[in-house]
Write a structure and sequence with these properties.
With 234 residues, this protein is of the alpha+beta class. It has 8 helices and 6 strands, in the order αβααββαβααββαα. The strands form 2 sheets. It has a 3-stranded antiparallel β-sheet with strand order 1-3-2. A 3-stranded antiparallel β-sheet has the order 4-6-5.
């Protein structure tokens, strides 16, 4: 059998042959890969981060877990809360905690969910107010109601006034005045930590709207009556 007669064809002799063009993906047109928009990237703040919340939403969620309330006076945090409210509420619901956002009063706070037929773990510790704390709360709520009713944005009070209010509820035969003063100051400090009082200057406090939320008018009347029955004069 004779060998096939192959003709050596040079590249220059086939240069007029049109080669098929490669099919490019849309993002590869022009020789460049179209960058992925930043907002489409997963939010990874640290190595191994699997969280899905935006950074500002995470900060608000932590603030709500750490503190008893969030006020609209912190505009950055408040705006972030309103922007991400739905997803933040969902995260809290996973922990059996509800979020209350009072836009009129400009305050957001949380409450423990309780379901009678379901045994759920309690995240928020229930700590009843002491007798002196209750006396001071009633006084704060009364001041707040009076001042805001007169058109003021906030009511303010001095530590000395609060201390005297607490001491006025003591048994007239009480002899250990120093111990009772210490107890009154401890109660004031606790109300500051709980968010009912915001210290503006040394010994000078602004009463926050949290006191209005915790003690509505009906509850205020009940406590005031209870204090009168106990011998106090709130």
């Amino acid at each position: 059998m004779s060998e096939p007669d192959w003709t050596d064809v040079g590249l220059d002799e086939v240069s007029d042959v049109e080669m098929p063009q490669p099919v490019l993906a849309p993002e590869e047109e022009g020789g460049f890969i179209t960058p992925t928009p930043m907002e489409a990237d997963p939010t990874e703040l640290f190595a191994g981060d699997t969280g899905t919340l935006e950074p500002e939403a995470r900060v608000v969620l932590v603030e709500l877990l750490r503190r008893p309330y969030l006020l609209d006076t912190n505009r950055e945090r408040w705006n972030a809360l309103l922007q991400h409210q739905t997803v933040i509420e969902s995260r809290l619901h996973d922990l059996f905690v509800t979020l209350i956002v009072d836009r009129v009063r400009g305050i957001a706070y949380k409450r423990q969910v309780r379901i009678g037929e379901v045994d759920i773990p309690i995240l928020l510790r229930d700590k009843p107010f002491t007798r002196i704390e209750t006396v001071l709360l009633v006084h704060l709520r009364t001041l707040h109601q009076r001042e805001t009713g007169a058109g003021e944005n906030f009511a303010r009070v001095d530590a000395e006034e609060l201390e005297q209010q607490a001491l006025s509820f003591l048994d007239p035969d009480e002899t250990n005045l120093a111990a009772r003063q210490k107890e009154a100051r401890a109660a004031i400090g606790q109300l500051v930590r709980e968010g009912f009082l915001a210290e503006e200057a040394l010994g000078r406090y602004r009463i926050t709207s949290l006191v209005e939320v915790v003690l509505d008018v009906e509850r205020l009347a009940e406590l005031a009556q209870w204090l009168r029955e106990q011998g106090g004069t709130p």
